[in-house]
Write a structure and sequence with these properties.
CATH architecture of one domain in chain A: Sandwich
Shape of chain A: globular
CATH class of one domain in chain A: Mainly Beta
CATH superfamily of the largest domain in chain B: von Willebrand factor, type A domain
Number of strands of chain B: 19
Radius of gyration of chain A: 19 Å
Oligomer: heterodimer
Distance between the termini of chain A: 32 Å
Largest interface: A-B, 27 and 38 residues
Structural class of chain A: alpha+beta
Radius of gyration of chain B: 23 Å
Helix content of chain B: 25-40%
CATH topology of one domain in chain A: Tumour Suppressor Smad4
Order of helices and strands of chain A: EEEEHHHEEEEEEEEEEE
Largest sheet of chain B: 7 strands, mixed
Number of helices of chain A: 3
């Protein structure tokens, strides 16, 4: 089951494009370890089963990952009728590299305490949860009220292309995006204004903001 | 005259080790002329709205447009004209166009008054059309400028379905900006026809002529698509079959197990219908159709049944076409660009529909995002006119204003078809 990040239609396994809106779907690719044949996650350095060094073999793995992932729609040229930016911003947006950082900045606002948490774009995955000895959280929510309903390893925010995605990495009490439960293993493409509630009851909630 | 089908797959190869691969099948169907066959006469029925709101310039233009249509018809063609307000009247009884001047005189006598009841107009139009239905190509143009205030939209849809059963094609023309795009789209979709937007009164003649040329190219009628999927293939769960050219229509299908049947309506010469089928295939399965080899699998067979107005009474069928896919080891995706274009056409329509659903729920930010996605899709398929319309609608919603009636119509038409450039 794959939930479309664009229209939230629930697609059956194996779908490459959404059955409802025909947007490309995120593919969870599993490659096999060339040594023992066990399934490994894309981007893994070592096989979890036999310890084989996958970096040596990274060439073929990378090619298949690239080829099978549908082109993100963000590659399309800018929409035609967007109002032209005024001269000042125009000049700034032409300056390379530096603008990249200015353009894409995102943050989470904790609703109950109005705390602002900047999201780094320098890393691909941001772990959200509470201190534990498996996956230390990048965003530690243990200081917020009612944090006892949040799992230690609760969810991830992934930054890919120009977009942020939220995924629940197997929390006990679940994650609700705009009050709709997010099935474990599925990702939601975050849009400005999305409300992410960790656990039930909307007690530890964040609003996603961009720019 | 015979029907011709061709097919392309979104990717002609599939990984032989994959149990579940998604592919799209694009079918193109057109009528092909064999030698010099004469054109079959049309049996055209105009159902014109003459309610009070049509008074003045609008009705003047419609009268002129109808008269120019009479001039463009052949003396063997049949014509009938119905005018309706809250009740319908026969303006021109069903007859061959032998004396165009007297027909035009009758059309010039149209005066505007009263309310709007589309279903009564449709009922009388179909009745009048049926008087000359033998050995002709049946076409109805329904023109209205407003809501169906004295009638029932349900009943309109019933008549449209009835028209399809009688093998007459129903086109709708929305005049101005106050008509209901949901109702007219449903009528045209059910009646196998096209929905046309006449935004300004002086475009009426041009749009009538365009639609006339379209119906004059009809060669075969009452076409049905029959698709039999292989045991190792299954159709997508959600709306697996849609027409994507010349207009996008969610086809009504009858499904029995792995067999699907859908009505396409008229087949034209030179204007192909394209149908997109979304399915999954298990390349590892041994339950395949006859004719398959391990590396060349038959995904399904396709056939079109139709009637030829020159040979009345007989239901004809095209030859069965086997859709094949190559199963290979170490598969790398190879997208077929033509099919990709078809997929984008459907994506543009569906994304706009989703945006409209969001708008109805009052979520205008969500609608704007989806419209923007649809605009990008339109750009990707090279439909810059639609991209402009969809993007300007998205921008309008983002600035917090509502879409005007005209913009709603333009958005719908832009999503449904590739806009003709001015």
């Amino acid at each position: 089951m794959i939930v479309c990040p664009n229209c939230a239609h629930v697609n059956p396994a194996g779908a490459l494009t959404c059955e409802a809106c025909f947007s490309p779907l995120p593919q969870i690719l599993h490659t096999n370890c060339p040594s023992c044949g066990a399934e490994v996650q894309p981007g893994a350095r070592f096989c979890g089963s036999c310890g084989f060094d996958l970096q040596q073999e990274s060439q073929p793995v990378q090619v298949s990952t690239e080829a099978a992932t549908p082109e993100p729609s963000e590659e399309v040229p800018e929409p035609v009728a967007t109002p032209l930016p005024d001269d000042e911003t125009d000049l700034r947006s032409r300056a390379p590299a530096r603008t990249q950082l200015q353009q894409i900045s995102a943050c989470l606002i904790h609703v109950q305490t109005e705390t602002r948490i900047e999201l780094p774009t320098s890393v691909q995955v941001i772990h959200i949860g509470k201190p534990n000895n498996l996956i230390p959280p990048d965003i530690d929510v243990s200081g917020f009220p009612d944090s006892d309903i949040v799992s230690r390893v609760h969810g991830d925010i992934r930054y890919e292309g120009d977009a942020f995605y939220f995924e629940d990495t197997g929390s006990s009490n679940g994650t609700y995006i705009n009050n709709v439960p997010l099935p474990p293993g599925n990702r939601h493409r975050l849009r400005a204004g999305d409300r992410i509630a960790l656990g039930k009851g909307d007690k530890v909630s964040f609003v996603f903001k961009m720019g | 005259m015979r029907a011709e089908i061709t097919y392309r797959l979104s990717d002609p190869y599939v990984d032989a080790a994959q149990k579940n691969s998604q592919r799209q099948l694009a079918l193109t169907i057109a009528a092909v002329s064999q030698g010099n066959e004469g054109r079959v006469p049309l049996n055209l029925c105009l159902i014109l709205d003459r309610s009070g709101s049509m008074g003045g310039e609008p009705l003047d233009n419609v009268r002129q447009a109808a008269c120019r249509l009479v001039d463009a018809l052949d003396c063997r063609d049949r014509l009938s004209v119905i005018a309706f307000d809250h009740r319908p009247t026969v303006v021109v009884p069903n007859q061959t166009v032998e004396r165009p001047e007297s027909i035009k005189e009758q059309i010039q006598g149209l005066r505007a008054a009263g309310g709007t009841c589309i279903d009564e107009g449709l009922r009388l139009g179909l009745e009048e059309w049926a008087k000359g239905k033998h050995q002709t190509i049946g076409q109805v143009f329904l023109l209205t400028d407003g809501e169906n205030e004295h009638g029932s939209n349900e009943r309109c849809l019933k008549f449209a379905q009835l028209a399809a059963e009688y093998n007459v094609t129903l086109h709708t023309l929305g005049f101005g900006d106050a008509w209901n795009q949901d109702v007219l789209e449903k009528i045209a979709d059910a009646g196998g026809g096209t929905m046309v937007h006449i935004q300004y009164p002086d475009q009426a003649a041009e749009e009538f002529q365009w639609l006339l040329r379209r119906v004059q190219s009809v060669g075969l009628t009452d076409a049905h698509l029959e698709l039999q999927m292989a045991p190792n293939a299954r159709l997508a769960e959600f709306k697996p079959i849609a027409q994507v050219a010349p207009d996008t229509i969610e086809l009504v299908t009858q499904t029995e197990g792995n067999r699907v049947r859908a009505r396409l309506g008229d087949l034209m010469v030179g204007v192909e219908r394209a149908v997109l089928v979304n399915f999954y295939i298990d390349a590892t399965s041994s339950r395949v159709l006859p004719g398959s080899t391990p590396d060349r699998q038959v995904v399904g067979t396709v056939q079109v049944t139709y009637t030829d107005p020159q040979r009345p009474g007989a239901t004809l069928a095209s030859e069965g076409l086997a859709v094949e896919i190559q199963a290979i080891a170490e598969h790398r995706p190879q997208m077929d660009e033509e099919v990709q274009g078809r997929v984008l056409a459907l994506a543009k329509y569906r994304q706009t529909q989703l945006a409209e659903a969001k708008l109805q729920q009052g979520d205008s930010a969500g609608a704007a995002t989806l419209l923007q996605t649809a605009a990008k899709t339109a750009l990707q398929m090279g439909d810059t006119n639609a991209a402009t319309v969809l993007q300007s609608s998205a921008t309008r919603l983002q600035t917090g204003t509502v879409l005007s009636d005209a913009e709603r119509k333009q958005t719908r038409i832009a999503s449904k078809t590739v806009l003709r450039s001015e």
